[in-house]
Write a structure and sequence with these properties.
The protein is mainly alpha-helical. The chain has 2 domains: about 230 residues, no CATH class; about 100 residues, no CATH class. It is about 60% helix and about 5% strand. The strands form 3 sheets. A two-stranded antiparallel sheet has the order 1-4. It has a two-stranded parallel sheet with strand order 2-3. Helix 8 crosses helix 9 and helix 13 runs antiparallel to helix 18. It is elongated.
Length: about 400
């Protein structure tokens, strides 16, 4: 039959294609990414096997290779060792040749051995999915031809291109090039859109790089992660168990001292804390003083350099920022205190007592500046703690 067993109207082919590609995206984000690569949740064996079979049929991707490459990406992000950084390789190459970059890195035995531990290694993985990765493509093509007829070839081609373009290209490329950032983590990750639907929630890429082991990718009330909706539904049905979520800010009214609990919250919630420092200290002073300063470069660029992690600010941007800060005494002090605060959790060899002393000393010095925004932030910090979510 020319139009297959189903003999669908034109819009039926569209719905069929969207449904199949969306299941593939769900399998990638829930099984490969959040479950396998980051261990953010556990899935019922039936769900895991379904996702593995579906991915074999529609992508041919190997679980161990995918998890290993993604873990290496996080470990080596925006360096020459990153398998697919557009900051290093250029957006054009990652966007349009992302699948080729993945295939090349999948041949790196060192990557697989070092970063691929803990992924499925059962009979079906060793005897079917890995050695016959391309056979799944052919089965899917045969099914499409039977159900959809000749148009099924076009649907199949779209299915085969979906993950290479959207996952390997858009997420790895655009997600490290343009968008908005909730948190200033030390890489170039961005949230592409606040509504994670088309790519299963992976649009919220800056959130993910900030909290890589979280099963939930949305953090703001106005953000939506459809992958999280599916995980919550499966959890209610006993088919998934969430292991980790982002820590949540909690303030203790009346608490007026910096103690061990404060130190723990500052270190574990440092990205949320620095976001609050930007909001409560840097931006109010910046808005107040920018009108009184002669600016050599674009004011937006200086604002970005002011809040961005140092590793993401180039020499020219740093020079413009320093010239701006030299004309704004309060903002310069606030910026210096931001760096001093970051230095506290960067002291990886310091003892707990040394870190606590450093934080308490930071607060005393910040209060002594006489800058109200800094003094208010110290009061906020004294009541700051985290409610860890399971």
């Amino acid at each position: 039959m020319l139009y297959g067993y189903l003999n669908l109207p034109w819009w039926g082919y569209v719905i069929y294609t969207l449904m199949c590609t969306h299941i593939t995206i769900a399998a990638v984000t829930i099984f490969l990414h959040r479950c396998q690569a980051h261990r953010a949740l556990e899935l019922h064996p039936a769900i895991s096997h379904f996702f593995r079979a579906w991915l074999w049929l529609t992508t041919g991707m190997n679980t161990k290779a995918w998890a290993a490459i993604h873990r290496k990406h996080h470990a080596k992000c925006e360096t020459d060792s990153d398998p697919h950084s557009p900051q290093i390789l250029g957006l054009k190459q990652v966007l349009w040749e992302g699948a080729e970059l993945y295939k090349a890195e999948a041949k790196n035995k060192e990557t697989l051995e070092r970063y691929g531990k803990g992924t499925p290694d059962d009979w079906i993985e060793r005897n079917i999915y890995t050695p016959y990765s391309s056979r799944g493509f052919l089965i899917t093509l045969a099914v499409n031809l039977f159900l959809l007829g000749i148009p099924g070839v076009t649907v199949w081609a779209i299915q085969m291109a979906w993950i290479p373009f959207f996952a390997a290209g858009v997420i790895n490329g655009v997600g490290h090039y343009v968008g908005y950032r909730n948190f200033e983590c030390p890489d170039a990750s961005n949230n592409i859109l606040p509504w994670g639907i088309l790519i299963g929630g992976e649009e919220l890429h800056n959130n993910h790089h900030t909290f890589p082991t979280s099963a939930k990718l949305s953090v703001k009330w106005w953000e939506f992660d459809i992958g999280w909706l599916y995980i919550k539904t499966m959890s209610m049905l006993g088919l998934a168990k969430v292991k980790r979520l982002p820590p949540k800010e909690k303030l203790i009214p009346g608490k007026l001292k910096i103690d061990i609990d404060t130190l723990s919250a500052v270190i574990n919630g440092r990205f949320q804390l620095m976001s609050q420092y930007t909001k409560k200290v840097l931006m109010p002073i910046f808005k107040q003083e920018k009108a009184t300063v002669e600016v050599a470069g674009a004011i937006g660029g200086i604002k970005t350099s002011l809040i961005r992690d140092d590793s993401l600010v180039d020499a020219a941007q740093r020079e413009n920022l320093e010239q701006f800060l030299d004309q704004t005494q309060q903002l310069k002090v606030a910026y210096q205190f931001r760096k001093k605060l970051q230095d506290i959790w960067a002291k990886t060899t310091a003892t707990q007592k040394e870190l606590l002393d450093a934080l308490q000393d930071w607060c005393k010095q910040a209060e002594a500046t006489g800058i109200k925004c800094l003094q208010d932030f110290v009061a906020y910090l004294q009541s700051y703690t985290l409610a860890m979510q399971a």
